[in-house]
């Protein structure tokens, strides 16, 4: 499939990166086929990398294998995302009649890099989580908002995208308690998330101070205290977590690590594994088990009571 024969034009987002007309067309087809903002960003960067690596050569199976081999210094998960973007490009070219089924099958048949072990990521202890929640200055409007964001991430295990699109109407009473009702998460799986009273109090404090009655819960706050009508982006949520984490000396702590923290603390508090699965919105109990990982407990070791 030769997609590198048209005169080159400059992209709007990066004047140093040149793509051909055909490349721009194919790239747009791919981006139009995905809805998640994070996936769009990853695919866009991956396709730019692929086009740059191709350097005017036609896209062939041999070239894709060479591209894959050139990424041996990257994490397996990163390489596999890039390969997924390439497969989506081939798929969209096939769907739009640019290549045949046999060629598409040949180009798509590039195996992923095997991932070994479980990536456990980061999480906070209970005391670290308390320290993090103390960071926002709750005497200010922005502080109330940031505290409510951290409270939802730690207390309800939300993904940052789920948090960013929350509406005021999503927080409802069900069976005598507050919940986030019918939350649509990853893979379009629907779940209902229980909201602890302390988290609900944090949300109420922000909404009351901001005089917000409908629409998105979380909005941008200007330096003069003005609240924007537009919702907060998921990357803004990431930034709030990063800045707060740095205040307590934690580096490389992301919003997803707070989701993991919630799951870990639930388990340490005796939470049932299946109920944690429902909270996280996982499709299987095995996913939750891998997510939580295992920890060695040497204070009460398994070989202390062998009866010998």
From TrEMBL:
One of its GO terms (biological process) is DNA integration. Keywords: Chromosome partition, DNA integration, DNA recombination, DNA-binding. Residues 119-304 form the Tyr recombinase domain. The keyword Cell inner membrane does not apply. GO terms for molecular function: DNA binding. Pfam families: Phage_integrase. InterPro entries: CB (IPR044068), DNA_brk_join_enz (IPR011010), Integrase-like_cat_sf (IPR013762), Integrase_catalytic (IPR002104), Tyrosine_recombinase_XerCD (IPR050090). SUPFAM superfamilies: DNA breaking-rejoining enzymes (SSF56349). Residues 16-94 form the Core-binding (CB) domain. PANTHER family: PHAGE INTEGRASE-RELATED, TYROSINE RECOMBINASE XERC. This is Integrase. It comes from Granulicella mallensis.
